[in-house]
Amino acid sequence: MSNKKLLVVESPTKVKTISKFLGKDFVVKASKGHVKDLPANELAVDTENNFTPKYKTIKGKGPILKELKELAKKVDEIYLAPDPDREGEAIAWHIAKEIKKSAGNKPIRRAVFNEITKNAVLEAINNPTDINENLFNSQQARRILDRLVGYKLSPLLWTKVKRGLSAGRVQSIAVKILCTREDEIKKFVPEEFWTIKAEFENNESKNFWTKLVKENSKKIKVGNKEKADEIVNHLKSDEFLITKITKKPRKNNPQAPFITSRLQQEAARRFGISPKRTMMIAQQLYEGIDIDSMGSVGLITYMRTDSVRVSKDAVSGAISFITKKFGEEYLPKKPNFYKNKNASQDAHEAIRPTNLSLPPEKIKNNLDPFQYKIYKLIWERFIASQMAPAQFDQTTITVDGSKHTFTATGSVLIFKGYLAVYNNLEKSEDEKEDSKELPKLKEGEKVKLKDLKPEQNFTKPPPRFTEGTLVRELEDKEIGRPSTYATIISTIQDRGYVEKQEKLLVPTDLGCLITSLLDISFKDIMDISFTAELEKKLDLIEEGKVNWIEQLKEFYTKFEHDLATAKTEMKDIKKEGLEKTDEICPKCNSPLVVKYGRFGKFLACSNYPECKFTKPLPQEIVKIGEKCPDCGKELLLKRGKGGVRFIACENYPECKYTRSYSSNVKCPECNQGELVEKVSGKGKIFYACNKYPQCKFAIWDEPVNIKCSSCDNYYLVKKRRKGSEYYQCPDCKKTYKKEEIEKK
Fold first, then answer.
1. 3-state class of 560 per DSSP?
2. Which entry of 79, 286, 302, 608 is annotated as an active-site residue?
């Protein structure tokens, strides 16, 4: 393997794209992500010895490292080119450490490129750098911080609430933001107010609508119907005059190219694509897509960035494209420049297309529908960012009566500018009403009142967060970083702390319970400004201005003290319950308390473990609409050991009638029995034929008595993937959204 060079990247897709740039002199291999990490089954951080981490090879990565070591012996030059961020630097650091002995005296260099194009890759290889220790230490400090918090807090929650819970440093803040908003919504008291719109007619019989804004030259707030009626009665007999017409040009400037958080927000707003999926699609576009005869092509620059900077070459390319496509009048007087936030890192460019000769429409057939949407969004935003502003003529009309003042605003687009490519202007219904074109009017002109519309309104509570608006909130409060937002949002849903209801994120009772407990015992971790400050310190570690070990010591000293205090002082939900009730235990006459179990809240005896009486909360009781065949009482749907559902008499324990919970789906094997809910020896729920042992058919997925529309199979099964439910035909594998099935 004489004169060969080794280049290591993260993804196998990149291997395909980059190999064609480098030719036969290079061997390009993929690490397939991280090769070493802290093991999941132990703390793996020596808190007594400068927080020394105990890294282990990730399962399945042993053969990859072995191959890289063998190649390191044979090649003449070694380049490590994982993604250009903290995680990528950590991957490069671990690989370098593993292959150093095999490489001998050969230098191991870092190649960093922001886009997967031939020029960018060759430029990175011709100008390699050393592995950035500060960047690695920043990633290592974050990883250790998260491990310390998660690994120490989770067992505490198991002891105080229930097993299986977990807590995270940044995820807990995200849940707190949602719980705080939910609390604001619950406490919100709506206030009544009225709006009054008036339609006027000018001398040429042209009509236009206006809105009441003042009474006796003062801003007016109409708080009730009586006041609204009083104003309406006065207006009906009043005379009106156009007292002022203001005309002025207005410009609307384009926005900067996308940074990670803005891309996630816009994809969620426009297409309902989750931040996690947006990043997955963007990764595919970055690493390379097969484009007809061109082979694999990287279509966008690196997608994890909070910088709006764009290279001079990219700006020149955009200017050339705009001139040819739209003409010079669509260019600003000088190229648009966008300024980064103070906290932004300028290591990367903004997200932009890498090849302007590949517009979205040209390669639409090479992209799947979601790749096309995201690529088109990135493309249009970038091109628009270098275009001239949109120009409007705005006219404001003031109409005065003897006591009341009305206004109307009309806006006319006179030059599209960047709106020819990217329309980011969203208008409320009122704004749409205001922006209608007005008839020709004159100051001093009398107008007739034609119609009045008094409307009752109520102030609205703050809205729940969507995935997109939560990303913006985290960004505004400087919680997390571009690469972490998608993971944060998917994690809190997977853990059951948050549910998505019609695109809105709603915290669960469990999420708010954990938040309230942590808020009391761990004020620093749950403090938004403290978490934001910690993020800044991680940035300072990256810049070499703060020692990572000293930063961990500072954090852990206070955290360890809070942890010790919480072990004795945090409320024991398992023992005490969430709250006491007025109900008395029928077995031992102790008060019943509300507790939280695997399937939500329930009532339990406060004398536990001496007395183990439990029963559902009244709102948790589910009647099935049948009478008990033994005593005539109502039959209820209950949960037993392991969470398995069954039918039982409400008169239990006096009446002991029970039966298995049936899915009402016929057994597909014997066609005689029905599939009923069971629990395995390991506590996992499954569904089996009730004719067992004659028929031993069983499945893990819950069957639903709904026909498949594609193959006429008579039942579907309920599935769950990444926190979301859907349904699937077990025969033809056709899938259905949860909403489709619920309608049926």
1. helix
2. 302
Please name which of 490, 488, 508, 501 lies closest in space to residue 598, comparing C-alpha atoms. Answer: 508
Name every residue whose Cβ is closer than 8 Å to that of residue 210 and which is 6 or more positions away in sequence: 197, 198, 199, 200, 397, 399, 406, 407, 408
Task: State the greatest distance between any 2 C-alpha atoms of the chain, in Å, as a whole number.
Answer: 99
Which two tokens mark 514?
């954990």
pLDDT given for residue 199 in this prediction: 95
Do the bridges between strand 36-37 and strand 56-57 make them parallel or antiparallel, or are there none, so unpaired?
antiparallel
For 195, the token pair is 């709006």
Element (H, E) at 129: none
Query: What stretches of 22-91 adopt beta strand conformation (E)?
Result: 26-30, 36-37, 45-46, 52-53, 56-57, 77-80
CATH class entry, domain 260-385: mainly alpha
Q: Which two tokens stand for residue 437?
A: 């074109």
Cα 152 → chain centroid = 26
DSSP conformational letter for 546: S
Give me the CATH code for the 5-131 domain, please.
3.40.50.140
Neighbours of 260 (CB within 10 A): 28
CATH architecture of 141-187+464-567: Orthogonal Bundle (1.10)
Strands of 567-666 (E only): list them: 579-584, 591-597, 600-605, 614-616, 622-627, 634-639, 645-649, 658-660, 662-666
Question: Cα–Cα distance between 250 and 392 in angstroms, integer?
Answer: 5
Bridge partner list, 688: 676, 698
Beta strand spans in 189-294 (E): 192-201, 207-215, 218-219, 240-252, 289-291
CA torsion 56→58→60→62, rounded to 10°?
A: -40
Q: 264: closest CA among 283, 290, 245?
A: 283
DSSP secondary structure string for all residues of 147-196: HHHHHHHHHHHHHHT-TT----TTHHHHHHHHHHHHHHHHH----EEEEE
Write the single-letter amino acid at 643: G
Stated length of the chain = 744
Scored b (16 or more CB within 10 A) or e, 105-115 reads ebebbbbbbbb
Any idea where the domains of the chain sit in the sequence?
5-131, 141-187+464-567, 192-248+394-408+429-458, 260-385, 707-744
Question: pLDDT of 582-632, one tens digit each?
Answer: 889 989 999 898 887 666 678 888 888 889 888 877 655 678 888 999 998
Rounded to whole angstroms, the Cα distance separating 694 from 744 reads 33
Q: Do 368 and 290 meet the contact criterion of CB atoms below 8 Å apart?
A: no
> Which position has the token pair 């008499």?
649
- Let me know if 302 is a catalytic residue: yes
The two tokens of residue 475 are: 């960004």
Q: Out of 3.40.50.2300, 1.10.1670.10, 3.40.462.20, 2.70.20.10, which CATH number does the structure's domain 192-248+394-408+429-458 have? A: 2.70.20.10
Q: Is the pLDDT of residue 370 over 80?
A: yes
pLDDT band at 174 (very low <50, low <70, confident <90, very high): very high
Query: Do 495 and 166 touch, CB atoms closer than 8 A?
Result: yes
Q: What percent of the chain has pLDDT over 90?
A: 62
Q: Are 273 and 503 in contact (CB under 8 A)?
A: no
Cβ–Cβ contacts within 10 Å for residue 99, how many?
Answer: 22
Instruction: Please spell the DSSP secondary structure of 387-417, one letter per residue.
Output: SPPEEEEEEEEEEE-SSEEEEEEEEEEEE-G
Predicted TM-score (pTM) of this structure: 0.76
Q: Tokens 């990247």 label which residue?
A: 9
